[in-house]
Amino acid sequence: MTRKFVFLLASTRLDGNTETLARQAAAALPDDVEQEWIRLKDLPMPAFEDRRHDGSGTYPEPDGNSKLLLDATLSATDLVFASPLYWYSLSAVAQHYLDHWSGWMRVPGLDFKPRMAGKTLWSITALATEDRSVADPLIGTLRNTAAYMDMRWGGSLLGLGNAPGTVRGDTEALRSADGFFLNDRESLTV
């Protein structure tokens, strides 16, 4: 089975520190691993409406950008959230994308949750402080999402980067990036 990593770039900044770190980590993936890079801000989705308790509790089949993101999500074996730390959590575009998972789970016949089971969820984040514990809420959100969806938790890669390009000075993060996905080497060769 060929692995496919879908990188969800969730920064409002083009080529920011988180993306730099994600691209460093992706460069170490084997050549036969497919990669798809999606900049979430370039695929705006409609506001999410919670319809769980409005009678039917179902959602229509997604269309437009929502359908593109759904298809990319389902095609992945590995989903990588590349989100900078914004107010101790995911960026707004990343959270908005995740909110739509609630609807996708309730589209008749889509079987979103069962189809997500067994995929691997990863996190790559740049933050502006050396106290890496401030990223715990972001990591917890994604780790809990993986558990709820019966996905594997691949891990989290953190790098120090505030102003553009400063993550390049975090040699520890760059060194960790080089082997980040290779910690899952056994499943990369399946």
The gross shape turns out to be globular
How many distinct beta strands?
5
Structural class: alpha/beta
Count of alpha/pi helices:
7
Layout of strands and helices, then pairs:
Blueprint: E1 4-9, H1 17-26, E2 34-39, H2 64-75, E3 78-82, H3 92-104, H4 112-116, E4 120-127, H5 136-148, E5 152-160, H6 171-179, H7 185-188
Parallel strand pairs: 1-2, 1-3, 3-4, 4-5
Helix pairs in contact: 1-6
What does this structure look like?
- With 190 residues, the protein is an alpha/beta fold.
- The protein has one domain (4-188): Flavodoxin domain (Rossmann fold, 3-Layer(aba) Sandwich).
- It is built from seven helices and five strands, in the order βαβαβααβαβαα.
- The chain has helices at 17-26, 64-75, 92-104, 112-116, 136-148, 171-179, 185-188, and strands at residues 4-9, 34-39, 78-82, 120-127, 152-160.
- A five-stranded parallel β-sheet has the order 2-1-3-4-5, sandwiched between helices.
- Helix 1 runs parallel beside helix 6.
- The protein is globular, with a radius of gyration of 16 Å.
- The chain starts with a strand and ends with a helix.
- The model is unreliable at 185-190 (pLDDT under 50).
State the gist of this model:
It is built from seven helices and five strands. With 190 residues, the chain is of the alpha/beta class.
Summary keywords:
single chain, alpha/beta, Rossmann fold, 5-stranded parallel beta sheet, 5 strands, 18% strand, globular, disordered C terminus
